């Protein structure tokens, strides 16, 4: 188990190691719009991992390719549908746009 903090809502939840980040966000009551069903093709689940980047799975080629097409990406950008929470350290994410509503 590790702690997942979700900004800007300020929600904190405990997450089992191996949980997909998208699922963890849904479990925490976040309203998510995922147009592609988690296939790294819509970009709707773009968020920032602001702390604990070693506590999540590494960037996949598909994720990297999609991020390259999005506006507003940075070195903390990830696609929630492609990230697994490893459980090795606490993680903080900042939801963006549609994900923060
Ligand atoms: S849900 Fe579409 S890219 Fe993540």
TrEMBL record:
It comes from Vitreoscilla filiformis. InterPro entries: 2Fe-2S_ferredoxin-like_sf, 2Fe-2S_ferredoxin-type, Adrenodoxin-like, Beta-grasp_dom_sf. Belongs to the adrenodoxin/putidaredoxin family. It comes from the Bacteria. The keyword Phosphoprotein does not apply. Residues 2-99 form the 2Fe-2S ferredoxin-type domain. It holds the Pfam family Fer2. GO terms for molecular function: 2 iron, 2 sulfur cluster binding; electron transfer activity; metal ion binding. One of its GO terms (biological process) is P450-containing electron transport chain. This is Ferredoxin. The keyword Iron applies. Its cofactor is [2Fe-2S] cluster.
């Amino acid at each position: 188990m590790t702690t997942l903090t979700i900004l800007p809502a300020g929600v904190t939840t405990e997450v089992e190691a191996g949980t997909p980040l998208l699922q963890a966000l849904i479990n925490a009551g976040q309203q998510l719009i995922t147009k592609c069903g988690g296939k790294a093709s819509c970009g709707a689940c773009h968020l920032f991992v602001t702390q604990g980047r070693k506590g999540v799975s590494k960037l996949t080629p598909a994720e990297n390719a999609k991020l390259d097409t999005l506006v507003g990406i940075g070195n903390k950008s990830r696609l929630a549908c492609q990230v697994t929470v490893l459980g090795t350290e606490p993680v903080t994410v900042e939801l963006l746009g549609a994900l923060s509503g």
